[in-house]
Amino acid sequence: MAKALLDEPRLVKNVLSASVRRLLLYQLAVMDQAGTLEGVELEDCVMLYGVQPLEAVLADLRLRIGQEVGIDLAPSYSFLWRYGRGAVVEQHTDRKASQIVATVQLASSDRKPWPFQVQAGDGLVSLEQESGDAIVIAGTHWPHWREECPSEWRLQLVLSFVPDRRGQRRFDGRAALGMPPLEEVKEMPTTSVTLGIDWADVLSDRHIGGAAAVTGCAAVQIT
Ligand SMILES: [Fe+2]
Predict the structure, then answer these.
(1) Distance 143 CA to ligand 1 centre (A)
(2) 3-state SS string over 108-128?
(3) Which of 94, 151, 159, 184 has the most CB within a 10 Å radius?
(4) Is residue 93 left, alpha or beta, with left meaning phi > 0 and alpha meaning psi from -120 to 50?
């Protein structure tokens, strides 16, 4: 196997500002309540491939993550994961369309740390992140995992990139971002899913702080 594209896992602080995360959460809330989210429901988590507003984040963060790792990257695909309490991410490496992976914490029901473990070469690295931060790894090379999720829920945006802008794994083999996955990369059939989140609570200042925060979502009737 070729050499990993990174020397070591990296924590990149605040790749998504509070105001950008707030907008993304509103978009997810609207889609959730409209019943248009499609994904795979597993025991303690829900996995959604290529949610369109999040594919836009994938495209936008290509430059920022590329600058961090010093490589000209192409977007491949995005996953949104909704983890529930006790969810475990089993140790694994990623498929070839995920040579560089940035896992971004979008929101969480609390601020409890949930360490991300990476076996990078001979070293075990444990990284903690806050909402807005990305952990960047060489997904195809380094086994990675998380122990039990300590929080009621957590939204994690997993962004995959490849180094070759013209290669066949750009857009994960799709004609464009935002399209469904190719048949050969579909892991399980999708169904209509809900994220099971109290959006009125999430979209309050308690979760989405910062000077630009709205004063709750009563005025927009999210629920
Ligand atoms: Fe992974």
Answers:
(1) 8
(2) ECCCCCCCEEEEECCEEEEEC
(3) 159
(4) beta
Report how far residue 25's alpha carbon sits from residue 70's, in angstroms, rounded to the nearest whole number.
30
Whether the Cβ atoms of residue 115 and residue 126 lie closer than 8 Å to each other = yes
Q: Cα dihedral sign for 52, 56, 59, 64?
A: negative
Beta bridge partners of 81: 47, 156
**What letter represents residue 123's amino acid?**
G
The model's pTM: 0.91
Kindly list the structural domains of the chain, giving each domain's residue range(s) and its CATH number in brackets, ordered by start.
10-220 (2.60.120.620)
Q: Between the CA of residue 173 and those of 37, 119, 207, what are the distances in Å? A: 22, 28, 36
Q: How many angstroms separate the CA atoms of 54 and 25, rounded?
A: 10
CA of 72 to the centre of ligand 1 (A): 21
Query: What separation in Å is there between the alpha carbon of 144 and the centre of ligand 1?
Result: 6
Residue 139 Cα to ligand 1 middle (Å): 6
